[in-house]
Description:
This protein has 423 residues and is mainly beta. The protein is 4% helix and 51% strand.
Amino acid sequence: MDLKLLALTACVLIGGSCAQDNQSIYTGSTGVGSNQNSTELGSLPGLGVSLQKHIDDASGGSSIRIPLNSYVLSGPLHITKNMTLVGSPFAYIDAQGASQILQIDNPKASVAMENFLFMHGSGDYGGAIASQAKSSIIRDCRFLDSSANYGAAIYQKGGNLQVTDSTFEGNNATIWSAAIYDNSGDMQVEPSKFTQNPGSHVIYINSNQPNKANVLIMDYNVSNNPGPYNSLGSGFSGAIVCENSTSLIDRCIIKGNRALIMTPTFLGGITAGLRFGGSDVTLNDTLIEGNEALYAPAISIGRGCNVMMNRYTITGNRALSVLYKGEQVDGDVAGISITVGSTVTMDGVSISNNQVEGDFAAIGNAGILSLKNVRIYGNSAGNTSSIRNSRYGRLIFGKNVQIYGNKAPHDVYSEGPVEMDFD
């Protein structure tokens, strides 16, 4: 069922109206289950207490249960202590585009949220949730139609962010990160889905600290996110963007995303799939399919990266060709772009049926690239080759590398050294 229809249904089930006016809510008994710090919010009329007051009055470490209803806010909720908020069985919180939904202001706090639909939040940093908490845990939540300049659904500064079994849809970032922006913190994302979130990046992780951020993303599905269309966008996009991180990305599907921005003064669109800079990355068992960008729609690997790719399938991605100011502009590198100063090792990787009108259908390499148990086939390039190794690059062929059936002037075009290593 459509999430917007679900929210409306919740209002009807409760009795035809939604709780209104800055966290209006009803309170019931305390001492739920075996947790003596837990508070059960019932639905008995006449016992109205604002949710903010309930949060303020609760002792540190409390768990607050919120009954099925659609709660309309006139301002953000603030949390400054350790706390768990649980929708029972599910709760809908709607900011109506007027404010953020939740602000966690204490960098020493640990806060968990479970079983919520966060709707129509709006802010500069974080549309639905803006958190500075030491630990922010999101479980079984849905983020729908929120907007922000940075982190349309969630903006996390420092600390540790964990997102599990959650859905992000229709969130829009005007500048950076349509779903999650993690600034200088660690992050774990496990079975979750991201779809139709327009904006530059879906998840963006950047550690400004001396130590790299630790990132774990598993069983992640990011599909059909359209990328930036506004005049403020940088032209960079991507399902996942990691800067200065140690990242493990495992068992993910990254499909049908698009990165393209065209304004009267700017044309851009770099990477609709994965983009890394200054990071140590392990990529396992992932499908990257049908993504589109002006440049490197599947994977872009920037300077200072060390990347291990195991059992990856990169197929059907397309570097776009567009008409801009009366001239045809052809994109480059339909598969993987590797920048100077990075090292990439591929084992068990398939790169197939990627397409570009310009150069380099499968790989453009200016770093150190080692291939083993790799198949490169069915790719199409208007110019040059399926694989291009620049004068700055070093290309190492190991065992069982197959390059066949590509439509390009050359399978491999190299200006730099090419080596064989079958050990």
